[in-house]
Amino acid sequence: MNEARTIKRSSLKDLIAVFLRIGVTSFGSPTAHIAMMEHEVVRKRGWITEEHFLEMLAATHLVPGPNASELAMHIGYVQAGYPGLIAAGTSFILPSFVATVAVAALYVRYGSLPQTAAIFYILNPLVLAIVINTVWNIGKTSLQGWQSVLIFGLALVASFLGINELIILFGSAILGLLLYHTLTKPPEKVAFSIFSLAPLPLLIPFLQQSANWLQSKVAQLFLYFLRTGAVLFGSALVLFPLIKDDVVTRFGWLSLPQLVDAIAVGQMTPGPVSSAVTFIGYMVAGLPGAIAATIGLFLPSFLIVMALGPLLAHLSKSLIAKAILKGVNAGVVAMLISIVITMGKNALVDVWTALLLAAGLAGMFLLKLEPYWLVLAGIVIGIATALL
Predict the structure, then answer these.
(1) Are 119 and 113 in contact (CB under 8 A)?
(2) Cβ–Cβ contacts within 10 Å for residue 262, how many?
(3) What is the rounded CA–CA span in Å between residue 74 and residue 69?
(4) Which of 328, 34, 52 is nearest to 166 (CA)?
(5) Looking at residues 139-155, what average pLDDT do you find?
(6) Do residues 229 and 221 make contact, with C-beta atoms less than 8 angstroms apart?
(7) Would you give the DSSP letter of residue 237?
(8) For the segment 66-83, what is each residue's pLDDT rounded down to a tens digit?
(9) Mind listing the pLDDT tens digit for each residue in 287-320?
(10) pTM of the predicted structure, to 2 decimals
(11) Cα(207)–Cα(230) distance, rounded to whole angstroms?
(12) Which of 43, 62, 172, 375 is the most exposed place for a label (fewest CB within 10 A)?
């Protein structure tokens, strides 16, 4: 740990209290969660400097895993070592796990009732507006320069052709390395960089088949989301294009409308949006499935931060890592567009849901509303509609 950049230490008790509070009160996109962390640990408590905070945030973009969750782990690590890492990460994730299990239990029991359907009828178009806004913001940041536009176009075509999402992700990484880094280097460095990535495609069959090792649904959930957490970059919304075909078609765990509902649950519960995997796990195998899916998804992040914590400064300055990230980000935008189309087909069922989407987009783009206002409005209107 680089102690010179840390203003003052905190106890495990303080870390747990702060990140439990953030986990309970933060709704919406990872940007909102990150903003709350910056307010709490930099401005309010002075635990770390703004520069160190931004360095940690940059590192979360360079490695697999949900950004906000990994940022919480990094903060915990610089404050209290590995115990702090575990305490901060677990405290941030736990409230969303509890809330999502509660919602999933109600969904399983009452999901077929007209009252519940009415809530999701209102909520899903508004959540779609949040997702579109997120894709727009990511796209503005990621699609800069002809290289990123080229990678985006190729990834979008590949997505429409039904090519596996992992292949798109690794292909975008390789193109990012080639276009942003190796083409500006001497030939020997180009050859070395390409050779260093050559084994990556060989991992895809292994990753795709890993969830079939055991017959237990709980074991399958754990192994499948362990694989997913190991290749998930950036926003938690990237999760859904990665898992859509597997969850709906390959394993038949959920129907497509249920997966859309899972995305909505991820938005309407506090904490990381990726807690939607808790909902999926519960739908498949009850509470053990929820636990297995959640641990599987977040375990790679804990392990990655444990390994990279001491190397944080070097990673954030790595030109190779940044080049790969630029390629991945461009590919991710294309993959997110596919999930927007899927959500649109299920959420926009009539003129009223189209009007709700328009109202949500106006709120996000014109009024600059935080995502949780749309979620709260959807829940309140949905409950009122169900009761009338």
Answers:
(1) no
(2) 25
(3) 9
(4) 328
(5) 88
(6) no
(7) G
(8) 888 888 998 999 888 889
(9) 999 999 999 999 988 988 888 777 765 666 677 7
(10) 0.70
(11) 10
(12) 43
